[in-house]
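Q: Please design a sequence for this.
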């Protein structure tokens, strides 16, 4: 089936965005040069559900240069950039537009699967779950999949544990070259950018509450402090809570933190983190934003229930989004603000992670897909970590593109370490 996007006339604008990203994705460019020569993906169809923006388009072009056919939709109904989607139709089958209804979102996932992919590339696992639940007839065709994000890996590991996973999946999220940079610095920067973009307010001097101190929460807290905010962290994991304290943040229960908060940011992967009692305790004009994969962390049904009125506010006028802030007025006149409808604020109110960060994540994707093409048939129905060689290859290529050389162990040093291993 042909591509379905919002407006093909946006192609040239989308091309410019992709061109800009390509200028700064040097690691993927190295991989692309090799892929062009070796065509490791020749004859394969790859079905993808990734946030459809410029850096994703650079990954798609790399896979196509490697010989694959690609069908793609977004992994979130609100994250597609329509100009990029239009431009990408030159390279792939594209089924995506900004502001899809939930039904349209699933129709588009199904359209990707109608292309009968052998490899699936997912962010959040909606595509893979759909394949297992409603498109079982396609499962035997699948060599394997990759998963980009923490939430998706958790879902897939549950499927593996219940013996329901029908093919091997590589957890790209869990590679060092992914989470140390993408989850931490990528989310840290892009979440703050999304909030600044949506509000035109400053972080300096504000009290910012970060819910969750995983890799994403760590990055958000770090960058918020760097912008001059007083940062409070909330956690349920005692080890992470101690880590946040040692990193210099105040740690307390959300109920206490929310009374002081100017901005609350969730990054937990769990639902109903901010709920009725927190909305009731929050200060007038408190801002709520979510950086987790699903729009369940700031619990909108409670906000809707408490509000006597609701309106879209702060007209933005961006081609891909007119309104990024909703104002909820409570019975006592208190106003609370929700950004990006509680969806991923960095992609809905921003443009996703910085280009150099996605260069690393998508290089891992490209090499993991190549690995599946070669080895997938020999793998079990399990969630695999990215092979160490691939993780290190991405690091080596990054250093190469930066022109940085590092030392190597001498033979004597290697021997010294080996002697430890045998316990002498
Ligand atoms: N751009 C494309 N995919 C992304 C992701 N998972 N997070 C942030 N930015 C992205």
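A: Design:
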């Amino acid at each position: 089936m042909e591509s379905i996007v919002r407006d093909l006339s946006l192609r040239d604008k989308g091309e410019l965005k992709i061109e800009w990203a390509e200028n700064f994705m040097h690691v993927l460019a190295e991989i692309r040069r090799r892929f062009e020569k070796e065509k490791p993906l020749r004859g394969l169809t790859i079905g993808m559900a990734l946030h459809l923006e410029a850096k994703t388009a650079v990954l798609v072009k790399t896979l196509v240069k490697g010989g694959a056919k690609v069908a793609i939709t977004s992994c979130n109904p609100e994250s597609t950039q329509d100009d990029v989607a239009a431009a990408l139709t030159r390279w792939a089958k594209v089924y995506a537009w900004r502001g899809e209804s939930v039904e349209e979102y699933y129709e588009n996932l199904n359209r990707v699967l109608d292309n009968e992919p052998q490899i699936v590339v997912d962010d959040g696992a909606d595509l893979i779950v759909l394949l297992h639940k409603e498109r079982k007839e396609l499962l035997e065709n699948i060599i394997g999949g990759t998963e980009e994000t923490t939430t998706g890996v958790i879902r897939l590991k549950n499927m593996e544990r219940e013996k329901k996973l029908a093919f091997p999946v590589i957890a790209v999220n869990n590679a060092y070259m992914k989470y140390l940079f993408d989850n931490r610095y990528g989310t840290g920067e892009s979440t703050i950018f999304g909030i600044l973009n949506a509000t035109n307010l400053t972080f300096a001097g504000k009290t910012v509450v970060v819910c969750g101190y995983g890799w994403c929460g760590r990055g958000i807290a770090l960058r918020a402090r760097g912008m001059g905010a007083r940062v409070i962290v909330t956690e349920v994991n005692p080890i992470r809570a101690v880590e946040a304290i040692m990193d210099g943040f105040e740690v307390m229960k959300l109920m206490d933190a929310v009374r002081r908060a100017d901005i609350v940011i969730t990054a937990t992967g769990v639902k109903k983190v901010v709920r009725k009692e927190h909305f009731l305790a929050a200060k007038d004009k408190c801002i709520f934003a979510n950086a987790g994969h699903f729009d369940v962390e700031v619990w909108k049904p409670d906000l809707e229930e408490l509000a006597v009125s609701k309106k879209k506010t702060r007209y933005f006028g961006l081609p891909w989004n007119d309104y990024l802030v909703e104002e909820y007025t409570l019975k006592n006149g208190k106003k609370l603000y929700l950004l990006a409808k509680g969806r991923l604020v960095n992609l809905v109110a921003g443009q996703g992670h910085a280009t150099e960060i996605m260069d690393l994540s998508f290089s891992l994707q490209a090499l993991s897909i190549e690995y599946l093409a070669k080895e997938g048939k020999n793998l079990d129905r399990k969630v695999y970590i990215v092979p160490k060689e691939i993780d290190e290859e991405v690091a080596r290529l990054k250093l190469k593109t930066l022109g940085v050389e590092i030392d190597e162990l001498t033979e004597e040093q290697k021997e010294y370490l080996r002697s430890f291993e045998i316990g002498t």
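Q: Thanks. Anything notable?
A: Residues 50-51, 53, 55-56, 123, 148-149, 346-347, 352-353, 358 surround adenine (CB under 6 Å). DSSP finds 17 helices and 15 strands in the chain.
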